[in-house]
Prior knowledge:
Radius of gyration: 20 Å
Low-confidence stretches: none
CATH topology: Na+/H+ antiporter like fold
Number of domains: 1
Amino acid sequence: MIAIKTLIVGFAGTGVALALDLPAAPLLGAMLATAALGWAGAKLYVPDRFRDIGLLVIGLSLGSGFTADMIEQAGTFAFSLSLLSVSIVLSMLASTWILARYWNHSTSTALLASAPGTLSLALAMAAEGKGDSTTVICLQSMRLLMLAAFLPLLVSFLGAEGAGAAGGDVVLGWNLLALLAIGGVFLALVFARFHLPAPFLLGGMVVSAVAHILEWAHGLPPFIIIVVGFALVGAASGARFSNIALRDLTKNIGGALASVALAALVSALFALVTSSVSDLPLAQVWVAYAPGGVEAMAAIGLALGFDPAFVALHHLFRISLLIVILPLFVSFAVARGQKNAGANK
């Protein structure tokens, strides 16, 4: 019953957002509706299988942006990814600094809370005693909600929406869509065994990308399928707040606002440099650099009409890089903290 209630709330929020013509309406509406109810104390829950369906749909949609001539853009992609790497480190360190300096969190807790899109890894490391789990989940969840809520509104307000994905006016047939979905699920299960990030999104994207590059497929899933997929992911993201006590949310909201704003500013500055050098649209690069979860940011890029391949690849690269460097940064912070504690005895 809780899952049914959560889905009803999510789809209702999607309907309201679509009626108001909000940017990224299905994702934003479902996320805000469930987050608001969860914040009010309601028990909400979206089963993993429903969230995975949503991620698979988003992945299949993102894959439509891959084309055979993308190899010509390899140089641009390499330059952009190199600047993204620097942006990731600096934005994470800036966010960590402000949380440790003004909100008195330990450096390791601040690091885990500042690594965008790595909630599962961050919580696992916190559970090992390398940070405070409650603070990490509060700050990570609020980061996702704030970026998902304000980024599309800001981009839309600035009039910077993209032209849409390749084949955006073409709809995949149901038979072909079913074949791609089956292939995406198979790949997702393989990726999950290797602990790759967002396996269902990645599986759907890879299958769809290969089909579009080889010109076996052309176009997006039907609109209603995309709406349902976005709504499922939005509802699952917003439902996280039902597991967080209101006192913990209110205690951490100031730190979340400050750290997200600082990280977003750093990413915006790097996006400006990348856009100036490569002539890529600034808003597209900013969405690709934004320090949010891979699922939400890739979905927002798709919903706003930006190049889905560009946005998705950058966020998947960011998550992969963080999986490698975050344990190193946290281990260094913990060792330094222990050394300082020993010296003060």
